[in-house]
Amino acid sequence: MASDSGLISVLVLLDLRSSEDLLTPSKDVVTSLEGGTVTLSCKYSGYVQNLFWYHQKSGSHPQLVMAEHSEQTEKLKFIHDKEKQQFHLEISSAAVSDSAVYYCALQPTVTGNSKTLYKNLWSKDNRILHNIH
After folding, report:
1. Phi-psi category of 85—alpha, beta or left, where left has phi over 0 and alpha has psi -120 to 50?
2. DSSP of 51-64, one letter per residue?
3. Domain 8-113 has CATH 3.30.43.10
4. DSSP 8-state class, residue 32
């Protein structure tokens, strides 16, 4: 259920590439009202041992959110569709505190340049609450 403040979370994914593997988010930006369910998705190609989701909140280092074989919770679910070479992070009861830059990652680690966008937290009347680049 959305709160009366009507805040929207904007989540950003990174696009990581190497010469052998490709890891691409399905969408660069995902939004949700508070209380909604957010699904972040990445497609991959190449050899994959393990899959991961990380997030990085403003002013902090990236932190592991969930690995493929992590225990599922009511709030967080890891979904792997091997046939389509996609994996998803489902966040239930989304809150402003879930707003962050989210990274989809695989092992062996993909190295090289990464592309990122920006994220804003918007209020109900479209004021920018935070602008983070």
Report:
1. left
2. EEEEEE-TTS--EE
3. no
4. E
4 secondary structure, DSSP code: T
**DSSP string across 64-116:** EEEETTSPP-SSEEEEEETTTTEEEEEESS--GGG-SEEEEEEESPP-S-EE-
**Which letter, b or e, does each residue of 33-51 get, where b requires 16 or more Cβ atoms within 10 Å of its Cβ?**
bbebebebbbebeeebeeb
For residues 62 and 109, the answer to whether their CB atoms sit within 8 Å is no
Contact criterion met (CB below 8 Å) for 64 and 50: no
Q: What angle do CA 53, 17, 110 make, to 5 degrees?
A: 55
Model pLDDT for residues 58-97, shown as the tens digit of each residue: 899 999 999 999 999 999 999 999 999 999 999 999 999 9
pLDDT at 124 over 70: no
Q: Where are the domains of the chain?
A: 8-113
Give the tokens for residue 65: 């959110």
